[in-house]
Specification:
five-stranded mixed beta sheet; 19 helices; D-Maltodextrin-Binding Protein, domain 2; alpha/beta; 2 domains
Length: 457
């Protein structure tokens, strides 16, 4: 019997079981169908972009964790991040794999204005910055080497020498990122600024974010990054996997740094829903988060699971890249220059290090970067950052799901953090800075390039 047939058969069973429940507890393990906890909506459609870190949704579907919660889920790939967000807003999608900045950007009204919330962080790390072969060859003379290999992490100081040379020749330096409120935009900007390059500001008259820029950044959908680089339209890009490793396999570019090296254990994607949907379907929301937590636990449980996940993700209806390309970064390694594959066990983290918990401090970091580059046009007090984070991030929903899984024996209390929503002062940044989410304005003051306090472009 095919996996699809098994799923259909199981759904028929669940539908029949649901009809017998009424207002009493079912007594069936794994089904959150007791009185007061039954999902308000059972048939759901979730969107995703073809990236490795859609894995929690895919695994929750393929391993029937959604079905264990009485949910009949359909997954659907989306053309780009804007289409995905618009379809969540208008109700065509019940929820989606989202950029961490999307719920925040929508809530504060940068770009599309809408009330979007998240109760689940899908992963840590997972992105890289790739440059063309020509740019790499210009950077290499400025990079230190050990044992014949380039020393990592690579800072943008070496790229600055290339950009300065191009500027003297009247040539613009162009790089791609996936969306204005994407983690990729902010980590690329962070890396560039740490190396002395201004990635530009957003203003009321410059929605491209290129005002005063040394490097011109533009939007390219993730799967199109390698082809856009190969065509010479851009000279480099920041994207999630497998599209950095694809450049290596195709021989068209070299990943120079990962976001693990820009900020260790940086939050990446979230699962987002509209506030209206969350208010209308609280039990369903908890059930979805339960299934996603289990998927992330499964992904981090063993290398055998990762290898199986690579095969699943390689299917055309999911990521659709060769398994070898996906596996290059999904199974504990990362390849920089062709043949320079290095161990990187923390490149993709789905559950370890409390990866799935929606920390307020993560939300506030993204808001600081929106302010730093002009997407937030005016100075805001620290209280505004806190209040906005609490409006969007919903750890209460997450902890309801966690406690249910503990009660069902599917997780341990130690799997989840005891926290007020903050990680405390954090290091691990490529420029040596420290970030404290409780003090966003003090953090902005540390950063040499970017807006702070009463600054305007």
């Amino acid at each position: 019997m095919s996996s699809q047939s098994r799923r259909d058969q199981r759904r028929q069973f669940l539908a029949g079981a649901g009809a017998l429940v009424g207002t009493a507890a079912m007594g069936l393990p794994g089904l959150s169908m007791a009185k007061g906890t039954a999902p308000e909506k059972e048939s759901l459609k979730f969107g995703f972009i073809k990236l490795t870190d859609c894995a929690p949704l895919v695994i929750a579907y393929e391993k029937q964790f959604f079905e264990d919660e009485g949910l009949n889920v359909t997954l659907e790939a989306q053309a780009n991040w804007k289409v995905l967000l618009d379809r969540v807003i208008d109700g065509q999608l019940d929820g989606a794999h989202m950029l961490a900045g999307q719920p925040l950007g929508a809530t504060i009204g940068f770009g599309t204005k809408a009330d979007i919330v998240t109760a689940f962080c899908m992963d840590l790390n997972g992105n890289g910055i790739t440059v063309s072969n020509a740019v790499w060859n210009e950077m290499k003379p400025y990079l230190p080497k050990e044992g014949g290999k380039v020393v990592h992490p690579i800072k943008a100081d070496a790229l600055k020498k290339v950009v300065d040379k191009w500027k003297s020749q009247g040539k613009p330096f162009k790089m791609g990122m996936v969306f204005p409120v994407s983690t990729h935009n902010y980590e690329l900007r962070y890396w560039l600024a740490a190396g002395g390059l201004n990635p530009g500001f957003y203003t009321s008259t410059d929605i491209t974010g290129t005002s005063k820029a040394d490097v011109l950044l533009s939007v390219t959908p993730p799967p199109q990054m390698p082809a856009t680089l190969e065509a010479g339209t851009i000279n480099g890009y920041c994207v999630g996997e497998p599209w950095n490793q694809q450049a290596v396999f195709k021989g068209i570019g070299v990943p120079v740094v990962t976001n693990l090296e820009i900020w260790k254990n940086k939050p990446e994607k979230v699962f987002g829903v509209s506030k209206a949907w969350a208010d209308k379907n609280p039990n369903t929301h908890v059930a979805v988060v339960k299934a996603l937590i289990r998927a992330c636990m499964w992904l981090d449980a063993s290398m055998a699971n990762r290898i199986e996940a690579v095969k699943i993700l390689s299917q055309p209806n999911y990521v659709g890249a060769d398994a070898a390309v996906i596996g290059n970064s999904m199974t504990g390694t990362f390849e920089y220059e062709k043949g320079d594959k290095r161990p990187m066990p923390d490149f993709n983290v789905f559950f370890r290090n409390f990866a799935t918990y929606p920390f307020y401090s993560d939300a506030i970091w993204f808001l600081t970067q929106m302010r730093r580059w002009g997407q937030i046009t005016e100075s805001k007090p620290d209280s505004w950052y806190m209040n906005t984070a609490k409006e969007v991030y919903r750890p209460n929903v997450y902890m309801q799901a966690a406690k249910a899984l503990i009660a069902e024996g599917k997780a341990k209390a130690s799997d989840f953090p005891v926290t007020d929503g903050f990680k405390g002062a954090q290091g691990g940044f490529i420029d040596g800075m420290t970030y404290d989410g409780r003090k966003p304005n003090a953090y902005l003051e540390q950063l040499k390039i970017g807006l702070k306090a009463k600054d305007k472009v």
